[in-house]
Amino acid sequence: MKKLFVLYRIIILAFIAVIFTGCVNNNAPNNNSTVTEIKIGVFLYTKDDTFISTLQSNLEKAARNKEISDGIKIVINSFDGKGSQTAQNEQIYKCLEQDYDVLCINLVDRTVAAPIIDKAKINNTPIVFFNREPVKEDLERWDRVYYVGAPASESGEMQGSIIVDMYNSGKYNIDKNGDGKLQYVMLEGEQGHQDSLLRTEYAIKTITNEGIQLDKLANESANWQRSQAASKISQCINTFGDDIEVILSNNDDMALGAIDAYKAEGIEKLPVIVGVDCTEPAVEELRSGNLAGTVFGDFKGQAQSIIDLSCALALGRNPENYVDLEDGRYVMHPYIAVTMDNLYKLELK
Hints:
Number of domains: 2
Number of helices: 12
CATH architecture of the largest domain: 3-Layer(aba) Sandwich
Number of strands: 12
Order of helices and strands: HEHEHEHEHEHEHEHEHEHEHEEH
CATH class of the largest domain: Alpha Beta
Oligomer: single chain
Strand content: 15-25%
Radius of gyration: 26 Å
CATH topology of the largest domain: Rossmann fold
CATH superfamily of the largest domain: Response regulator
Distance between the termini: 81 Å
Low-confidence stretches: 1-33
């Protein structure tokens, strides 16, 4: 009887231990502490875009630093969409069939995110969109979808403020013909692209709201490309000649294309040209005096946020503990207007 009693106690205690262990496991936070490697797929709309290629290289640097600080291996595989949404979709869907922990997507077409999100949801693979913001309704299709970027309207405002400051200072003689207006050419990115539309709208609004009159000579779409912009501005030079006083460009690559066009024509005195992105080639032209200004897009900060957010999602952690979220799913980095007046201070940071 004594032996049976002891055996009975052992069985009861074992049974209680099993129940207790099960309760503890069911209520423990899922932080995937045993994960030793994170696999991230990065999808670029095109590697030919200078800002995007700069952002990609900073993603790699941020990942290496994260490996050292967190002691976890991060594998990044990048894919070039080459400007084709069809090609990018094929790349994304193929990776969804593989063991990727997170997909980071720079969409070719920001309006077609819905089917990508739906497929990722079925596969339970979180997505971090970046640089090209999907429409709000698409981002709200699933709670494991996020966006990292910068407010496009702000970059347009800062572009316009550079022109306003130069005009009001009086020392740059922007109004070369003295007619009280600024004759300008607008270089736009893709037609219908959100960043292109907002940068154009807010650059013009910022200037005209300060009482400066504008006279638009041409509005050219160069699809963010330097070579296309050079061709467009070459045509404008042949049509308008010295009448062009200002060139507003939606990005630096197109601004550099405008400079290329003037150099090709052998014209040394350039109009006031302003871009967006603050890429290294643009900074070189800023120092040389050919570019009047640009707007710094924090590619380093954006890259860090993409990596921090991706790792948090892969490890099952709360993203709010690792990045500053707006409205629960946006990480937005501010722009900085850049001219020769503050370039040195910016480089000191």
